[in-house]
Amino acid sequence: MPILVPSSKAQGMVLEESDIPFEEEILRNPYSVKFWMRYIEHKTNSPKQVINLIYERALKELPGSYKLWYNYLKLRRKQIKGKCITDHAYQDVNNTYERALVFMHKMPRIWIEYCQFLVEQKVIVRTRRTFDRALQALPITQHHRIWPLYLKFVRSSGIPETSVRVYRRYIKLCPENSEEFVEYLLSIDRIDEAAAKLAELVNSESFVSKEGKSKHQMWQELCNLISKNPDQIKSIKVDAIIRGGLVRFSDMVGQLWNSLADFYIRSGHFEKARDVYEEAIQTVNTVRDFGQVFDAYAQFEEGMLNAKMEATSELGPSEEDDIDIELRLTRYEEIMDRRPLLLNSVLLRQNPHNVHEWHKRVQLFDGSPQDVIKTFTAAVQTVNPNEATGKLHTLWVAFARFYEDNGQLPEARVIFQKATKVPFKYVDDLAAVWCEFAEMELRHKNFNKALEVLRQATAVPSRRAEYFDEKEAVQNRVYKSLKLWMFYADLEESLGTFDSTKAVYNRIIDLRIANPQIIINFTMFLEENHYFEEAFKAYERGIALFKWPHVYDIWVMYLKKFIARYGGKKLERARDLFEHALDGCPAKFAKTLYLLYAKLEEEYGLARHAMAVYERATNAVLPKEKFEMFNIYINRAADVFGLPYTRQIYEHAIEVLPDDSAREMCMRFADLESKLGEIDRARAVYGYCSQLCDPRKEELFWKTWHEFEVRHGNEDTFREMLRIKRSVQAKFNTKINYMTAQMLPGSESTVGADIGDDDMKKLEERAKAIVEEAKQDQPKVGKRDILFIRGDSTQEELKEAVQASNPEEIDIDDDDDDDTAMAAPEVTLEEKVVPSEVFGSIPEEKQLEVRAHARQKIGNFADLENSKIRLRQIHLLDMFRKKRTSVTPDEAPKEVPGKFGSVIFNAIRFIKEGNVFFKQQQEKYNSTVFRVNAGIKVIALLDNTAIQTLFDPDNVAKEDGFGKIRLNFDLMASIRPSIFSNDQSHRDRKLFMVQLLRHVPNNYMIKIADNIIRRHFESMNDKYSGSSGDNSLTENFEHDIQTICSDIVTTLFLGGKANVDSLLQWISGIFERSRRLGVIKTKSYVNAYIGYQDLIKAIEKAPTLPKIIQIASQYSLDPHDAKHNLLFAMVFNAFGGCNCIMRTCAARIALLKDDERERLEEEIKHRLINYGGLCVNSLYQMHTLESFVLEVFRTSPPIPLIFGRTKRDLIISSSSGKFKVVKGQLLAGSIYLAHRDPTVFIDPEEFKPFRFTENPSLKKNILWEAGCYTNNSTEHNHQCPGKGIVMPLIEVFCLYLLLHCKYTLSKQPIWTGKKTSRFGCPDDIISVKSFSFQPGKFKVEMPQHVLDSINLLGPDTTFDSVAH
């Protein structure tokens, strides 16, 4: 029953019986929040007046309770929800908030809700004041909770002035949010204040953009803002601001000048804008900035002209308008005509020492002599000889030639005299000036003056210096210039006297600067003047100056001239000369001298002396020339002494010549003996020669001996010949592999070109012919006694005779019995198992069938020789079946399908679709080998079998590039790297690179990689921490990975790091032709050339360079060649491939499943613990990590296409059959699709990180550049030799990513294979949301022997010098 409580605390409150216990508790504990809250909870369903009254009672007792106030205010807001904002209840709630803030003024939540409540009521003034009171009442640490609401309120209020003032207050507290203020000012069209604030931000060194904008971008915004709104900019000095930017931002000078001019154009100050443009084109230093300013200037003038013409056409022309139009047209034409000169000025401001540009500037002033003279004067005064680009002396010569062409010869002489005093960098430059000076005098018939000039040039200075002593001035060294002396000598011969010319030549020899040609010229001059003995003395002086091989030409000329002069009159002197010449003569040059010596003896000396000379010559010449020399010796001996004298020569020749030449010599010797009637001697020679002749190869010899015996022999000698033939054949049959190799036509192994059906048929026919011949040679028993064995011989004697004739023969059973008295004896066949290697990939059932067939056929022959021939035939057929495993035996080679099609259309498709282009063509022709035009006509090879045709250098030659993309030799100083070389050039360069890599131990590489990767990851952790969502990280993450790769590679080879941007610039242009527009080169070409110069300088300064040059000299490579081969291998091969794979590995690791990542981490930790840390041994045992990296190589090869041109006609085997390809055809192999060959890889499009641990045999199908991963790189193939460096480097990088790095990608990477610019990488740039480096989880240690490892190329690099 309700009870009315008359107390003052609860006046008018109706109490229920259930309320009494709560009231009693409150009376006992009026200051307990808990009891009041229980009471309120109990009265939840009561009318709002009751609940409000209880709250009011509670707050009267506990006015400082935040909990009571918060719940009370929340309840009051809920009670008026849905009412109109003009309702009086809103004011009551406002009053309640005001009462609450008396006690809760330090509680930000109360202020926030009150302010939000007032915002809903649209009470602007009261709301603004309440926000201000909140900021005054709360500590500054809580202001960040108020300001967002305050700013949102003022932006929505629609009162710009209020909003601006509030923002100004806010910026004083949070200046880092000034960009938000600028955006708001722009939104309300307060351009002037926005520009002023933006200028303030740009000039502030401490300001950092929260939106990730650089000062460069903010300058661009400011320039665009003020240039497009000139009428609204009042408070800042636009000219001063933009000119300040010109000083600070050198990379956007052109854009800033255009912005300043645009400002004046929009302001209507056209003359001022024109002055700005003129000033800009006179001050910019780069072609890019000049192009931007000039184009804008020309567009401005054109626009002014068009505007005037349109205005005139509308209003009607007047005389003043015509003059104005003519003036503007003249201005426009004048600026266009000035363009080449202005551009040349830019290039000279960029490099005032560029000789070529000065020459071009002179050409631009053609027709204006005064300007030409001024230009030449400025050029020779400006260009520093030590910094000149190009030949400085050409400027002086052209300057003098200009005066000469204009008939001012004295002035030209003055110029030349001044030029001879210039401190040129090279002696040749000064020598060229003197030569041009003399030639000028010759052109004007001043012969004496020309000689005087050269005498002055060649005069010995007071301070002598060596020619190559760069510390001395060139004027002190030019007197030893051979170029000057040769010119001087030619002039003296033409214009001077005999004595003066002779004095010049003697002076050249005395200065020891002569070359063999000078000596020969001197002697010819003396001979022409009939001073023969003087000429011979000159020869001897030249011989004293030079050593072999340079002295060869002098000796030959000397000896020929001496013999022609004296003949046999001074024979002993001639002999002494020959003996002197032959003393120390290399074998390469001995042949000519010996032949001259022998001819001398034959014509003027003794015949026996001539024979002795020939005898000496056969021992002194090169091995490949000995056979020819013996032939000459024999012919001359036969002519002089007769044929019998040649016997001892033949015998000596047979002893010393190699087998091939000795065989030919034996046949000639035997033929000689036959002609002399010495049959037995000839037979003996044939018997000796037979030991060198395999019957299967040297058929001509055995045929010749056979014919010899037919003509001169009898049954006994014929039988002996056959016995010897069988024994020799047995000797050459000792190795079955050797035997089968010798049976091949030409005994050549051709990779990629299988034997065709015609060749197989010929081989089978040849084997059958051998069998038939053996049958004809075997004994015909029972008819005639032609076994050359007595008719009454017993079977035992017959058996002994057979065994004696060939003791190494195996016994073969003969099941065929003959009833005749002369039946062949039964012999036991000793069966030997045919090696399984002979059968290749023939199924086991087929092998058994072949073996049974062999035994059956062998049993049909009684003679031992025939059984071996049959075995040889079977082995040979099996070997060819092994080579034909890819096709059926009766399959013929096919024509390559497809058409080349349109160049442009297919090239565009290839650029857009990348690797998918080849896949579509494969599906179109249903073949992995087809013709296609991908910008260049090629035959595409897409499966794992066909592409290996490109790996054989005997069949395929490399060209300078990848198909249409050719090597830019400007960035390689015309040096062809190993990868594009062929034959001996490739072998020398490849051996150099292999030897170079051996000097970089793997443990040292691991030490360097570990340190650099660790340092970089620590730096990345500091840079990326707390930067989640920052868009600037989009490109930084990939660039950081490229920097890691660059630092490791350059440190290993150069002993220090190089600039990664230089590497990237060089790579971007190495396969791009330099495209020129007039004198302008493309931006990419210029950047690539700058990168090339930086890299060459880094290589030249590298502490490892002396060792590298020493290694190169071992393979006949000069330092220039070595440096550029190192550059290509280091940057393109090592860095270019590694950085692509490292980026893809980083993306693939982020996509790994938890169990896959856990498996990799467990194996890595296990190997590191077992082997005492990170070293070569522990790394080689990480099989799952290797499998992961190989799968990345398989799915994302950094070089997806390789090319080669066929050297001969080939038959290419593939999974689609055999195809005929003619010589000279360009082949293109797709590594990308060969790695996706479904006949090799299961689920080829799926990324399986453990594919190669589950099936290690698949490793041989990974294509490593131009070879298989499991093959070794040698000088005989084009496979990349850096596998031992690249794989450990990538594995160490992945190891750190797996163990210590936690990162998430901004978006899911994809690999479509379509983007040609991203081969080996995901289609889009890899970006990260977050990145952290946590090395404390599992510390990676290195054993002591790894820490102690050093670089064998040079001084060990300290870690601090190579890490960031």
Based on DSSP secondary structure assignment, what is the total number of beta strands?
16
Distance between the termini: 85 Å
Mean pLDDT: 77
Read across the widest sheet, the strand sequence of neighbours is: 4-5-14-11-6
How would you portray this structure in words?
- The chain is mainly α.
- It has 59 helices and 16 strands.
- The strands form 6 sheets. A 5-stranded mixed β-sheet has the order 4-5-14-11-6.
- A hairpin with a 2-residue loop joins strand 7 and strand 8 (965-966).
- Mean pLDDT is 77; it is low at 1-12, 735-739, 741-757, 777-843, 852-890, 1073-1080 and 1357-1364.
What descriptive keywords fit this protein?
single chain, 1364 residues, mainly alpha, 5-stranded mixed sheet, 3-stranded mixed sheet, 61% helix, disordered N terminus, disordered C terminus
Summarize the structure.
This protein has 1364 residues and is mainly α. The chain contains 59 helices and 16 strands.
Question: Layout of helices and strands, plus pairs?
Answer:
Elements: E1 3-4, E2 14-15, H1 20-28, H2 33-42, H3 48-61, H4 66-79, H5 88-104, H6 108-121, H7 124-137, H8 147-157, H9 160-173, H10 178-187, H11 191-203, H12 215-228, H13 238-248, H14 253-267, H15 270-283, H16 287-315, H17 319-337, H18 339-350, H19 355-364, H20 369-382, H21 393-405, H22 409-419, H23 427-443, H24 447-458, H25 482-495, H26 498-510, H27 516-528, H28 532-545, H29 552-566, H30 571-582, H31 587-604, H32 607-620, H33 623-641, H34 646-656, H35 659-675, H36 679-690, H37 699-712, H38 715-732, H39 736-743, H40 757-777, H41 795-805, H42 844-858, H43 864-883, E3 894-895, H44 903-913, H45 915-925, E4 929-933, E5 937-941, E6 956-957, E7 961-962, E8 965-966, H46 983-998, H47 1002-1024, H48 1033-1054, H49 1060-1070, E9 1076-1077, E10 1080-1081, H50 1083-1101, H51 1105-1113, H52 1119-1151, H53 1154-1170, H54 1176-1180, H55 1183-1195, E11 1201-1206, E12 1210-1214, E13 1217-1221, E14 1226-1230, H56 1231-1234, H57 1251-1254, H58 1283-1300, E15 1301-1305, E16 1328-1333, H59 1344-1347
Parallel strand pairs: 3-13, 5-14
Antiparallel strand pairs: 1-2, 4-5, 6-11, 7-8, 9-10, 11-14, 12-13, 15-16
